[in-house]
Amino acid sequence: MTEPPATTPDPHPVDQPHVHGASVELRSVTKHYEAGERGPGAVNDLSMRVPAGRICVLVGPSGCGKTTTLKMVNRLIEPTSGRILVDDRDIASQDPIALRRGIGYVIQQVGLFPHQTIGQNVAIVPSLLGWETARRVARVDELLELVGLDPARYRDRYPSQLSGGERQRVGVARALAADPPLMLMDEPFGAVDPIVRERLQEELLRLQARMTRTILFVTHDIDEALRLGDLVAVFQAGGVLAQLDTPQAILAAPASEFVARFVGADRGLKRLSLTRVRDLEPSPVPTATVGEPAAAGHARLAVATPGIPAGWLLLVDAAQRPLGWVPSARIPTEGVLGATLAEPTGAILTPWMSLRDALSVMLDAEVVTGVVVDAEGLVQGALTIDRLADTLRA
Is 99 helix (H, G, I), strand (E, B) or coil? Predict the structure, then answer.
């Protein structure tokens, strides 16, 4: 087993100065399901620490103790021996019901109550905690908006009226309802199709950038683990922790032959997924706002922009959201710049997108330049395939 370095490099830097998360530490934790059982248990002598505000992904083959470990953290399963501390407080000394109400929990099948509306499902824990009605309603609407669901459309619907991806979003909203510093997620996206799964992964990273909770996330998919984790804990059969480290360190230096095989022979390619768009400084891009004089567009194109193909102007709306590219030949000599001049943007790159995903988006769109936008969809600059290639070579 390898311990993470004292100062762990963070592939998902926390932008906010305030971290609303709880540290989690397991000290020599073992779980046997049979009384008096000898030999290897479901989990064996597990020691690991997850700093506050980080995502730690537990990954490994079926039956290796990932879910058992997760359930011991909120005392759905009691360890046979060892100690588990949340924010340096031993959970064995806490009332299990009170403990669970302070921990968000998301499972693969979501577990929404079918006879309750979406609003009622999200408000379950606040209701148990005695929140006033107005506060519960406001919290439900806030969380539905946070996970990308319009409260007016979804609040009064029932789970059967939602798609699988929408139900997973509601599950995340419910887990966040009481503003927990710690969230446990057990294969939360395993039951949805690959396209929806990718969107939910992006949504989780977007939410984490805003919330900065501590998240323990169980998966059997190494690509998902590398994409989401600040730390990755690789478990092997017999409930043994084979390696705990950053995704970069695991890919660069697997601790054992088992870890190397589990990560895959293409681990060199997988390293492309560890640098995100926000880790690069986007190149300035010549922009003009719809309705501006055409002369302004010509003037901006006359100034060379390093790294951006010449002769293209990015048209944006009044809020600086991209509308599309305008080639110099289509810019009129007089009048104003209209939205109809713009050709499709082609590739929109988000800050939390990996370079591997960014490259894929640009190749799929058959463009050499992607527009980088922030969480609100406002233009931040651009990245080119050449820039990505230079970064990867470096």
Answer: helix
> Which range, 85-99, 134-148, 205-219, has the best average confidence (pLDDT)?
85-99
User: Which DSSP category does 344 fall into?
Assistant: P
Taking CA 235 as the corner, what is the angle to CA 57 and CA 188, rounded to the nearest 5 degrees?
40
The token pair at 363 is: 């190749």
pLDDT at 2 over 50: no
Cα 63 to Cα 136: distance, rounded to the nearest angstrom: 39
Instruction: Report the C-alpha gap between 354 and 391 in whole angstroms.
Output: 13
Domain 24-102+180-271 has CATH 3.40.640.10: no
Q: d(Cα 21, Cα 94) in Å, to the nearest integer? A: 18
- Residue ranges covered by each domain of the chain: 24-102+180-271, 279-393
pLDDT band for position 218 (cuts 50, 70, 90) = very high
3-class SS at 155? coil
Q: Give SS3 for 376.
A: coil
Instruction: Indicate if 279-393 has the same CATH topology as 24-102+180-271.
Output: no
Residue type, 111: G
- Bridge partners of 263? none
User: Which CATH class, in words, describes the domain spanning 279-393?
Assistant: alpha beta
3-state secondary structure 285-329: CCEEECCCEHHHHHHHHCCCCCCCCCCEEEEECCCCCEEEEEEHH
Percent of the chain with pLDDT over 90: 48
Are 141 and 155 contacting, i.e. CB atoms less than 8 angstroms apart?
yes
Whose CA is closest to 283, among 220, 221, 368?
Answer: 368
Instruction: Report in angstroms the alpha-carbon separations of 231 from 40, 56, 160.
Output: 25, 5, 35
Q: How far apart are CA 243 and CA 9, in angstroms?
A: 16
The pLDDT of residue 3 is above 60: no
Q: Is 214 left (phi over 0), alpha (psi -120 to 50) or beta?
A: beta
**Distance in angstroms (rounded) separating the CA atoms of residues 7 and 223:** 24
The rounded Cα 16 to chain-centroid distance in angstroms is 16
Residue 123 has a CB neighbour count (10 Å cut-off) of: 25
Q: What is the pLDDT of residues 94-105, one digit of tens each?
A: 999 999 988 988
pLDDT grade, residue 233 (50/70/90)? very high
pLDDT at 134 over 60: yes
Return the pLDDT at 14.
Answer: 39
Q: Where are the alpha helices (DSSP H) in 102-252?
A: 118-122, 124-128, 133-146, 151-154, 164-176, 194-211, 222-228, 247-252
